[in-house]
Amino acid sequence: MVDNAAQELKHQQMLLHAVNDTAQILLAAMDEDRFAASVLKGMEIIAHCLDVDRGYIWQNEVRGGLLHYAMIFEWQNDTGRQTNPVENKMVFPYTDIPDWEAKFLKNECVNGPLNDLSQEEKDRLLSHGMKSVFAIPVYLQNTFWGWVSFDDCRRERSLAADELNILRSVGLMLANAISHNELTVELRAALDGAQAANRAKSEFLAAMSHEIRTPMNAIIGITQIQLQKENLPDEYSTALEKIFSSSNSLLGIINDILDMSKIETGKMELNLAEYDVPSLVNDAVQLNIVRIGSKPIEFRLDLDANLPSKLYGDELRLKQILNNLLSNAIKYTEKGTVKLSVDHRRDGATVTLRFVVEDTGQGIKREDRERLFSEYARFNAEANRTTEGTGLGLNITRKLVEIMGGAIAVESEYGKGSVFTVTVQQTAVECPAIGAEAVQRLRNFTFTGGRHNAQLDITREPMPYGSVLIVDDVETNLYVAEGLLAPYQLKIETAISGFEAIEKVQNGGKMYDIIFMDHMMPKMDGIETTEKLRGLGYKGVIVALTANALTGNDEMFSRHGFDGFIPKPIDVRHLNIALNRFIRDRYPDEAKKCKPPAAPPQAAIAEVDETRVKLLQIFRRDAEKAVITLRETAPHGANANGDIKRFTITAHAMKSALANVGEVEKSRAAAALEAAGLNGDRDYIGANTENFIHMLESLIGKLSPTETVTADNANVAEDTAYLREQMQIIKTACMHYDDIAAYAALDRLKERSWKPQTSAALEKIRDMLFLHSDFDGVAAEKEIIENA
């Protein structure tokens, strides 16, 4: 025992001497070349003292929103070498070694034989020939900087606790030296922190912009399609106008919140203009009373009839303030009353508007009031654990109120309710008061302002001489775009992928007046498709359709060959401007000849129902494809690796599509799977994917057409010669892995009528290509050819 203790003490002293030698070597190295050699020399000293075979230094970095570790130095016993820290470093995601990341984040070490590790860790490391591994996390200024590791390729052993503590000092010393060599520890940490925060914020804004705009594209788009129709019954017209008004109010708020340039600079500039006060109040109320749902809440509105009918200020920001206050009041009130009161005081040219929002909800604890307007403030965590929201609303509200020269105050009694009072300074406009009649209509929720109808009141000139191609991988989006373009009488073609769009341009030999190109598509996105089209010499107009409508996107799209972009949800005014600019104005003679024809009477109610049915049918097809993809790409079970990227994209698409058709709970389930995919959480995916697929299949079953519907083409006369000809083209194309030619032939077949069995087989082939890139499977699919 005494001998062992003495030997252990001697070994520790040797290790401490090695640490001291390493420190002296690093301090002596001043220039970059000598520094790299000094780091390797220091690692060699420590490695010889530990009697190990390899040593590594790994530094953390964030890529794509995920934490990765990069090998910046490598020492080997037989050769001794350095991996260039800039050009050739090897980078891996921590999702490859999740157990290690969890240990490192708790400042624990990996210490011992590979046989003591989990099976997943052994599978990852056995191929490297090591028998024992010692890995020590490194923290600089309380930040997880990276880690230092050493491999023993000859023995199974563990290091003593004292040895690990000494190695922690080694790791910290090496990391400090590396950081000082790059700049200084403080400067480097500040730079990395700023860059990481900026990336995280940019990715968050891009994701939020896309996620919110995707379902709103369907809401606003389909509403606009219906409002274009003649002879709508008043009750339908009123309901659709409210949907459109509320959606546009919400979209306007989203647009400003997600304005990256304003958030980056910390500036929230006001957009001042004259606005209609009754419409401001009505829009805010209509947007929020729908949040009450089935709650037993009475909403009251108390207005001063002497309020000016018009004021000068930033209407959108005022709506944002009211929306934050009203939505919180309704969110945290289970029953009782929510009341909005509005009055004013005038002093010369300045009008002080006062909004008071009262509720009988949860109330706020005294200790929580001081931080009520801080960022990310959330209260009563246990009671509100299922309540949605970012916790930013009141912080944003306070900043907006202060910019408007006002103030915000709160009175609250926990368990009984709250009263928020806001005052803002506006500029007076010569105008009459709103009057008792408008007040009564606002209180009864029967107020109608003419402004939102005016948003739709644009002149849609027929352009039968024009042609457009819409490219989008989601059929629901194609349906919305086609519907919005229908009044223009254009020649409209669609493509479900970038491959199909390229084939239409190449084989069709035509130039479209406009190609509307979706930004985010699987396999080949809109940017790559556009760059390939430009590479082929295509000179026509290409306009991006994007749900990621952030500041600076116009420049980004221009650099990649686009002539412009329209944000989703598609605003008919932006669409009309693009059509007039790129089509009408290029054909002045044809434009003069075309006059808008009188619209024929339409059965409005039937058309609304037909729209809903068609949307559900389109969704069903998207869902059927998603089921196949999810099963094949989910990384779990026998398919441990899977294709997590395609799985995540598919879950993302289903999240939006389910929201479009009103399946909120299923949409949330898809969102959870998407989040798991983004985080590399294979355990969650394995435990929940099949249940989600069963939910989808159940919904698909409810939406599947009956036999009478599918039998509509049962007696159609098929052109079997043409079918065989095109199928042979598809087979040959797949044998040569030419998906563009295969898609083109499938599109030609789609233009003709086929029996249900033939149509199903063609759809199967399309899925084999689009969902799985299964060229060999398609080439071997002979049944349809032989039976034709």
Folded structure, characterized:
The chain has 788 residues and is α/β, with parallel strands linked by helices. Helices cover 53% and strands 16% of the residues. The strands form 3 sheets. Strands 7, 8, 9, 10, 11, 12 and 13 form a 7-stranded mixed beta sheet that branches. Helix 27 packs antiparallel against helix 28. The chain folds into 5 domains: 2-182, 2-Layer Sandwich (Beta-Lactamase); 268-454, Histidine kinase-like ATPase, C-terminal domain (Heat Shock Protein 90, 2-Layer Sandwich); 467-593, Rossmann fold (3-Layer(aba) Sandwich), CATH 3.40.50.2300; 604-704; 712-787, no CATH class.
Concise structural overview:
With 788 residues, this protein is of the alpha/beta class.
Report Rg.
32 Å
Low-confidence stretches: 82-87, 381-391, 450-456, 597-608, 706-711
Quick one: how many beta strands?
18
Give the CATH H-level superfamily of the largest domain. Answer: Histidine kinase-like ATPase, C-terminal domain
